[in-house]
Amino acid sequence: MQSSSAYGGEVFDMAFRQFEAVANHLDIPTDERQRIFLPKRAVVVSCPIHRDDGSTAVFQGYRVQHHLTLGPTKGGTRFAANVDVGEVAALAVWMSWKCALAGLPYGGAKGGVTVDPHTLSPREMEALSRRYMQEMIPFVGPHIDVMAPDMGTNEQVMAWFMDTYSMYQGKTVSEIVTGKPVETGGTLGRREATGRGVAYLVGQAMKKINLSHSGATAIIQGYGNVGSIAALTLASQGVRIIGVSDHTAAFYDPKGLDVGALERHVRERRVLRGFSNEMTIDPADLLLQKCDVLVPAATERVIGSENVSKLQCRILAEGANGPTTPEADEILDQRRDEIFVIPDILCNAGGVIVSYFEWVQGLQQFFWSEREVMDRLYQALQRSYDQVLGRAKRDNISHRNAALAIGVETVMRAKATRGLFP
Ligand code: GLU
Question: Which pTM does this prediction carry?
Answer without folding.
Answer: 0.98
